[in-house]
Amino acid sequence: MKKALSLLLVGAMTLSLAACGNSSSDSAETDSAATEESTTTEASDSEGSGEAVFKIGGIGPITGGTAIYGTAVQNGIQIAVDEINAAGGINGYQINYDFQDDEGDSEKAINAYNTLKDWGMQVLVGTVTSAPCIAVAEETHNDNMFQITPSGTAVECVQYENTLRMCFSDPTQGTESAKYIGENGMATKVAVIYDSSDVYSTGIYEAFAAEAANQPFEIVSVEAFTADSKTDFSVQVQKSKEAGADLLFMPFYYTEASLVLAECDKQGYEPVFFGCDGMDGILGVENFDVALAEGLTFLAPFVAKSEDEMVQNFVTKYEEAYGETPNQFAADAYDSVYVVKAAIEAAGATPDMSASDLCDAMVGAMPSVTYDGVTGKSITWTDGEPNKAPLVVQVVNGEYTEL
Amino acid sequence: MIGFISYLVNGISLGSVYAIIALGYTMVYGIAKMLNFAHGDVIMIGAFVVFSTVSGAGLPPVIGVLISVVACTLLGMAIERIAYKPLRKASKLAVLITAIGVSYFLQNVALLIYGANTKSFTSVVTIEPLTLADGALVISGETIVTVAACIIIMIGLMTFMKYSKSGRAMLAVSEDSGAAQLMGVNVNSTIALTFAIGSALAAIAGVLLCSSYPSLTPYTGSMPGIKAFVAAVFGGIGSIPGAFIGGILLGVIEILGKAYVSSQLADAIVFAVLIIVLLVKPTGLLGKQIQEKV
Amino acid sequence: MNGMKTKTHNLSRTTKSNIITYGIVVAAYIIVEIFLRAGMVSSLLEGLLVPLCMYVILAVSLNLTVGISGELSLGHAGFMCVGAFSSAFFSRCMEEMIPAAGIRFTLAILIGTVFAALFGILIGVPVLRLKGDYLAIVTLAFGEIIKNVVNVIYLGRDSRGFHISTKDSISLGLEQGGDVIIKGPQGITGTPNDSTFLIGVVLILITLFIVINLINSRTGRAIMAIRDNRIAAESIGINVTKYKLLAFSVSAALAGTAGVLYAHNLSTLQAQPKNFGYNMSITILVFVVLGGIGNIRGSMIAAVVLTLLPELLRGLNDYRMLIYAVILIATMIFTSSPGGQEIQERIKLFFERKKTKEA
């Protein structure tokens, strides 16, 4: 019986190998057929007439524990692509867009990247989380493909010439937060809670702690949590409370923050809450008691309530399409696509160029690109890092308010 | 001192949630002799049902919890019927893998229905918090309800097992299912009943878990599920008071470890204590020591 | 006379079966290599080649514990983690001292394997006193502890030597130009990408050689005797602890080898729930169970098929993991339930009848 089973499995394997190996154009066809459904009709029209298109790929987690961030990026890119296509494309060429799941894992991210390469991707917008981003950057560097990450914050994400990011780096955020707290005299005693199993959170915390030494406040308590024990925050909050901290610094994402805020409320602890850009989205948590977040201050690249015309346009479209307010992940992803557009236009590139030539042209054109978007104005890039100033956002009366 | 008591209270509160989940684990293990890895995800489904009915449709919390208990009971029985029953005679490992498959399935169904975004769960508990020692010690309503529910459920289960006919049938099946069958016990329906009770407990655990820690995603159940599994083994898997004690101890160790040793190494501490206990008592605190016969 | 005849017949049958197992690996290598040369392999498959080798090694090595020795281990990923981190640490330190990738990687493989074996012995000694599900949960616990501890290690190097901390990289107090090699949750970045398909296949062949020879040796028979009846084995003087520990640590060592392949295939190495948590251990266990417990060739095939499956389902987008779960459940029911087995029998009968008809 075992023999029959192994025969069955061998059969399945050869079939799958054949499916993989036969020809990449074959799978690319089916893939683009799948994306046609998700992209707008304009894109498929242009493809129908045999016109050349720019193929932009995206990578991020859309299943698994970090799926929230990947989904936001996927949606953000989609809005930008639809807009650009409707407005006539880049240099007159339409964009084809495909997004692949990496489950937040480096190994899966490489698989996603290779899948997109088979599809014919020319420019990569991704990946969403830092660790997979570093792994994929190694590949794009080898292949010389242009990569812009909307939200990979670790320093190493943009260590190569062909890579740049749209968000702030971890050290920038940590340092800026410490400076802001110190310069505005927000506190004398600060407690920190951070995720010791997360690159983003530890990165910000380390930079914050380093800068804190130069600032007129003292870090009185540092407590950690991990991906495996982020249900109960009673100890971390109680320790901060006992240390007498008047400000609680929270360098992590809003999912956990909503739990920390609820725990503080439960324990009757009312410090000043200070967060990082991962806090953006906390008011959008379905059913969340926004009163808990009242007074929460954080540095962010983007405020959905801003009166800026571009922001309003983006927010309206996003809300129409997905029924929720976009967070900074979506906003950075939206901007990333427009940066790609700006770079291609500055380089005067066309879709018939190979990914490598396109990358060289875009990298060459980047110094001349000054970009106005929803996450900042007149942004330029040095060594892949965006030069943009963070906005200070506070939750006032249950709404994000720019300070 | 007040600090220590406060940690202890939080530990007991967390431990009670683990204990309720562990009770479900241990019952299924005792009777069906299988590790039901999907138990944690039934908890998540239970919490989502309450979320939909109470926060979504605006029903009163009590009705929502009832609907959730019924839904989870049916779900548990359906899982048993479709995925586990055909494998009754198969190897233990085959059943374990199937349970893992069911776990992935439930997570992904929830992901498709509710999306990946975090939902904030409104507590179904309306009891005012208890303030002691001039406000230095606050015991929340959730803690009181969770601990009370945990004790009531444990006592209820033990009474049920001891005095009711179906309960004794369960004991018989867990002791020797072949002999029980010969004595006229319907093994299949007994196992189905076990799953029904286990899943109903999961629904309650889900509600209490999310009332104390109000965040809900498709992956909410998996880590508490594993921790509860550890708790069940800790106390001696298959033993009802064992699951209770194991759950409480695990919660207390986790909180005290975080508070007094290291918050970074909290998981390692929990697992290290488990290993030490099992090395001293290889079948858990209250587990049965079965002598091997030739 | 008659008895001897059957014995030689049996022996040649095992040898034949083993040759087929090696043959499958070599043939798969040659076929893939031909397709690669012809440029007919998609980037996806090309990128999957090293991970496939890694999963095959993991599945075969776990089969040694689960199938041959009969112990349910849920901490296999922990040993993989040890192998990955020790070897990646070595490669990072020695990148300048040993520029020749071949020598450096060989040493790295040895180091990863040896470290994993050491952990196998250290963990095996206490753990193997337990039985069944208790053993399973303790191995799971050890795996989680390894992952948790690795996540808080900061290790840096400067002119004064190595510095270690469990807090953060600032407290290492490195001099200017010091290099933080292990950076807590960010792990090790910039490991040289030394893993290749060829090395992977060679490692599979070595793994198979070790495992198959072990099974067919006196030691292997002792291990299986313990699995089938511990008390009987003990009563004829087999040292139960020694043989169990041997199987367990060899299995751990081979998992370490797979970890080395993993670490040198990606430029980042982190200990996350996804890659070194119990989820990974369970994934490997699924390969072993689906391939047939104790069936080495089956584990290999199951590892390949189940690794490819989610990738081939990518076209289904959101439904991908759902379908994967359904396939998993359906396969288990089909292969292990009485109903499923009956259907299999019928299919077999059908084909056999056809064969006899043709003949």
Radius of gyration of chain C: 22 Å
The SSE order of chain A reads HHHEHEHEHEEHEHEHEHEEHHHEEEEEE
Task: Give the mean pLDDT of chain C.
Answer: 88
Order of helices and strands of chain C: HHHHHEEEEHHHHEHHHHH
* Oligomer status: heterotrimer
Q: What strand line-up does the widest sheet of chain C have? A: 2-1-3
Sheet/helix structural class of chain C? mainly alpha
Strands of chain C, total number: 5
Specify the biggest β-sheet of chain A.
7 strands, mixed
Reported CATH architecture of the largest domain in chain A: 3-Layer(aba) Sandwich
Distance between the termini of chain C: 33 Å
- Tell me the major beta sheet of chain C: 3 strands, antiparallel
Distance between the termini of chain A: 71 Å
Domain tally of chain C: 2
Helical proportion of chain A, percent range: 40-55%
Query: Per DSSP, what share of the residues of chain C sits in E-state strands of 2 or more residues?
Result: 5-15%
- Contiguous runs where pLDDT drops below 50 for at least 5 residues of chain C: 1-6
Structure in words:
- The complex is a heterotrimer of chains A (403), B (294) and C (359).
- Chain A is α/β, with parallel strands linked by helices and 403 residues long.
- Chain A is built from 13 helices and 16 strands.
- In chain A, strand 13 and strand 14 form a beta hairpin.
- In chain A, helix 7 (170-183) packs across helix 8 and helix 12 packs across helix 13.
- Residues 1-10 and 12-49 of chain A have low confidence and may be disordered.
- Chain B has 294 residues and is mainly α.
- Chain B has helices at residues 2-32, 39-56, 61-84, 92-114, 141-163, 165-175, 177-182, 187-212, 222-235, 240-260, 266-280, and strands spanning 119-120, 130-132, 137-139, 215-216.
- In chain B, helix 1 (2-32) runs antiparallel to helix 8 (187-212) and helix 5 packs antiparallel against helix 8 (187-212).
- Chain B starts with a helix and ends in a 14-residue tail after the last helix.
- In chain B, 60% of the residues are buried.
- The model of chain B has no long low-confidence stretch (mean pLDDT 89).
- The model of chain C is unreliable at 1-6 (pLDDT under 50).
- In chain C, the strands form 2 sheets. Chain C has a 3-stranded antiparallel β-sheet, covered by helices on one side. A two-stranded antiparallel sheet of chain C has the order 4-5.
- Chain C folds into 2 domains: 1-41; 54-291, no CATH class.
- In chain C, strand 1 (154-158) and strand 2 (161-165) form a beta hairpin.
